[in-house]
């Protein structure tokens, strides 16, 4: 008598960054036969060259800034010379040691993620993947795209998580020595004498902040009238003030046309003919999705004009069994979104319960000093009539814990639906705003009112108490 056994669903994932990693774990959890193809290491660029390294650098910059900041709290640092008199020590940063630690941490994080996939029973292929139709992935397992060593993998479901790469301008070609993308900075052995950062979006602002606090002279070239275009204007204004007071030269409404190497540095030529000389230049002018030459068009996968993969709210592409997660898709380029997309894609493909991604509820953070965290609708959208809401802003200077820590910049801003008081968004500018925003994220996700938030007990004194104070001030009279 013959028995029929149900075959495991086969899931092949191209890319092992946050989206691919989470998709693989979800598939393994649901009992699928999962294969991940990754060319540079599990964790992808987010772990190896982007998020983990940059935030580790920023953590070091925070520590460096904390030493002089402690003076404002009455802490004194000194050494004694041969004359036994106290001398103020000089704070120095060993960038070679910093970068060695950064790359070591990134490598360890990638190895930990790889081990987690192996424990879950996921098959990992070190190579480059491309589609060959709707149900086949060809993995080049040699040294690159031109390799003649191939594996053909048949799949019921395919998840594309190929990520993105820094945009390079033909008039400012990175060389990894004087002109850098953000993935190349970790080869520096010494702090740049004068770092010119081209681009004042999130990446440019974060690196400009970090290197300023590490002790480098920094010039930030912004083509817009404020840093962080598109972000909360009050938050951007505070950050620009902090940059200026810290000695940074912020050049607004200035567009870089060309970056050239000189004998001992770089020369940046602006569109109006002005020039800026420095020792090094970081190009932070956006990224492009890694979607070219991997068989998408031939398989019928629709792309946007920018080359991103079109997906719906469950990360599904125009081809029913093919999904996409992370920076290669036309959704917010955040690691947290990539994780959610990867998990959602696999749950949907395998018939498990799934909540479609609601981008309005996504929390984001800019890791400058101070940090800027946001969730939900923005003030501009409310002022433009796109959303109906009330706005309340509480400066952190009124918070007892902020005074104790000598925090001079920052605020909590809450947006609540007119009439009902339902929290629809918020902005926090503060040290560790990335941690403080979570209560507002919960409020937005679960449609809590400002009165619901105000009824929660915040520790006194605490920075989080500013959130309940702001919510209390927005009390809806019953």
Automatic annotation (TrEMBL):
Keywords: FAD, Flavoprotein, NAD, Nucleotide-binding, Oxidoreductase. Its EC number is 1.6.5.2. GO terms for molecular function: flavin adenine dinucleotide binding; NAD(P)H dehydrogenase (quinone) activity. FAD binds at residues 55, 129, 327. It catalyses: a quinone + NADH + H(+) = a quinol + NAD(+); a quinone + NADPH + H(+) = a quinol + NADP(+). It comes from the Bacteria. InterPro entries: FAD/NAD-bd_sf, FAD/NAD-binding_dom, FAD/NAD-linked_Rdtase_dimer_sf, Pyr_nuc-diS_OxRdtase, Pyr_nucl-diS_OxRdtase_dimer. NAD(+) binds at residues 199-206, 286. Residues 10-342 form the FAD/NAD(P)-binding domain. Binds 1 FAD per subunit. Gene3D superfamilies: 3.30.390.30, FAD/NAD(P)-binding domain (3.50.50.60). Residues 364-470 form the Pyridine nucleotide-disulphide oxidoreductase dimerisation domain. Pfam families: Pyr_redox_2, Pyr_redox_dim. Its cofactor is FAD. Belongs to the class-I pyridine nucleotide-disulfide oxidoreductase family. Homotetramer. This is NAD(P)H dehydrogenase (quinone).
């Amino acid at each position: 008598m013959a028995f029929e056994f149900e075959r495991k669903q086969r899931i092949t994932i191209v890319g092992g960054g946050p989206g691919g990693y989470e998709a693989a774990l979800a598939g393994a959890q649901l009992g699928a036969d999962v294969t991940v193809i990754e060319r540079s290491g599990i964790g992808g660029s987010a772990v190896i060259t982007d998020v983990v390294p940059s935030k580790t650098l920023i953590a070091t910059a925070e520590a460096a800034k904390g030493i002089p900041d402690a003076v404002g709290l009455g802490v004194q640092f000194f050494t004694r010379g041969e004359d036994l008199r106290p001398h103020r020590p000089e704070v120095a940063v060993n960038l070679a040691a910093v970068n060695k630690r950064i790359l070591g941490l990134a490598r360890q994080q990638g190895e930990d993620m790889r081990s987690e996939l192996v424990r879950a029973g996921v098959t990992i292929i070190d190579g480059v993947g491309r589609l060959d139709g709707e149900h086949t992935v060809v993995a080049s397992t040699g040294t690159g795209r031109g390799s003649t060593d191939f594996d053909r993998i048949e799949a019921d479901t395919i998840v594309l998580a190929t990520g993105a790469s820094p945009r390079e301008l033909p008039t400012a070609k990175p060389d990894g020595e004087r002109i850098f993308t953000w993935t190349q900075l970790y080869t520096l052995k010494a702090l740049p004498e004068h770092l010119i950062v081209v681009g004042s979006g999130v990446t440019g602002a974060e690196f400009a902040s970090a290197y300023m606090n590490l002790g480098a002279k920094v010039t930030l070239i912004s083509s817009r009238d404020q840093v962080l275009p598109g972000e909360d204007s009050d938050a951007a204004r505070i950050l620009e003030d902090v940059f200026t007071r810290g000695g940074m030269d912020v050049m607004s409404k200035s567009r870089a046309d060309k970056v050239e190497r000189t004998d001992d540095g770089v020369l940046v030529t602006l569109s109006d003919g002005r020039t800026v000389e420095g020792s090094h230049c970081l190009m932070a002018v956006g990224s492009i999705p890694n979607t070219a030459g991997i068989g998408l068009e031939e398989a019928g996968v629709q792309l946007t004009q920018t080359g991103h993969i079109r997906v719906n709210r469950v990360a599904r592409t125009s081809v029913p069994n093919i999904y996409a997660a992370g920076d290669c898709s036309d959704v917010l380029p955040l690691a947290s979104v990539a994780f959610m997309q990867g998990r959602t894609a696999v749950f949907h493909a395998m018939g498990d319960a799934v909540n479609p991604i609601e981008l309005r509820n996504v929390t984001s953070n800019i890791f400058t000093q101070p940090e800027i965290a946001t969730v939900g609708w923005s003030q501009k959208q409310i002022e433009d009539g796109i959303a109906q809401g009330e706005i309340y802003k509480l400066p952190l200077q009124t918070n007892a814990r902020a005074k104790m820590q000598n925090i001079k910049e920052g605020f909590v801003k809450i947006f609540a639906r007119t009439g009902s008081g339902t929290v629809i968004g918020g902005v926090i500018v503060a040290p560790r705003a990335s941690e403080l925003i979570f209560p507002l994220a919960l409020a937005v996700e679960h449609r809590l009112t400002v009165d619901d938030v105000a009824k929660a007990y915040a520790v006194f004194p605490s920075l989080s108490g500013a959130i309940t104070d702001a919510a209390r001030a927005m009390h809806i009279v019953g």
